[in-house]
Design goal:
alpha/beta, six-stranded mixed sheet, 11 helices, 43% helix, elongated, binds calcium ion
Length: 275
């Protein structure tokens, strides 16, 4: 899995030059100056709230990096759309600031891909274009809000805070898990795929819930045996394999894209691998 490269030298990063990028090797750089004096609140926030900025223009990225850093946020920067998607998928960001016009993959495509994979990280789109079409397109693709450049930094901060508050509320209330067109309602104990209702046994429900909650993570047979059946793993038993096969026949075989994958010698992972 991709891991962000980190460095504590914002001066070096802010130049956006090739040397710096060469050193980090993936163009993914972190602002954050641990030595900068700060009040307690800023320190607390920086620990808790990590934002991802996807912006190809060095000046704009630098502006966001510095400004948000000064307000106590930890900021990762991706310089093009593909990097941005990879980091948004891999990272634990509380929010994504997404430029629309990007090389590789534009902002609309990026947010749509993220949502297809079931990632619900709030996305605030930054668009230089004022056409209503673009805003509507962004929101339809799965963005949560947009801001037209040039914007006042105070407005950006206010919108970030509003989205973070909203996300915190939803995280508590979220009772439906989604991965691509597979949906699991935890309250109604009901699964559906592409709008078709799927009947699951109690164990299958539990198994699917675990796989969906840990989407993108490989779960070993031992972990599944323990968490779904409450038993220590017995390598002679094939209860996990049999149940996974049954579950797959219900939720995956008649549908696409395929979501439940075997990882040889390791276990199982539920994720959308379609491009
Ligand atoms: Ca751009």
């Amino acid at each position: 899995m991709l891991q962000p490269q980190r460095t504590g030298n914002p001066e070096q990063l802010s130049t956006g030059n090739r040397t710096t990028r060469g050193q980090t090797d993936n163009g993914f750089v972190i602002q954050s100056d641990p030595d900068r004096p700060d009040n307690g609140i800023g320190k607390l926030r920086r620990k808790l709230v990590r934002l991802l900025v996807v912006e190809d223009e060095a000046k704009a990225a630098d502006f966001l990096l510095r400004g948000l850093g000064e307000h106590g946020y930890a900021v990762d920067v991706a310089r093009d759309g593909r990097e941005g998607l990879a980091f948004a998928q891999a990272g634990d960001h509380s929010l994504v600031l997404l430029d629309v016009m990007l090389p590789g993959l534009d902002g609309f495509q990026l947010v749509a891909a993220l949502r297809r994979q079931g990632k619900r990280t709030p996305v605030l789109m930054l668009t230089a274009r004022e056409q209503v079409d673009d805003r509507v397109r962004g929101l339809r693709a799965g963005a949560d809000d947009y801001l037209v450049k040039p914007f006042a930094f105070s407005e950006l901060l206010a919108r970030i805070e509003a989205l973070l508050r909203r996300a915190a509320g939803q995280a508590v209330a979220q009772t439906v898990l989604d991965v691509a067109n597979l949906s699991l309602d935890l309250e109604q104990r009901r699964a559906s795929r592409d709008g078709h209702r799927i009947e699951l046994s109690a164990k299958e429900f539990k198994l699917l819930k675990l796989l969906m909650r840990r989407r993108g993570h490989v779960l070993s047979r031992a972990v599944l045996a323990e968490q779904v059946w409450g038993m220590s793993f017995d390598s002679d038993s094939n209860v996990v394999e049999v149940s996974v096969r049954r579950l797959r026949a219900k939720i995956d075989d008649p549908f696409s894209p395929k979501l439940l994958h075997n990882v040889r010698g390791m276990g199982y992972v539920l994720e959308d691998r379609s491009p």
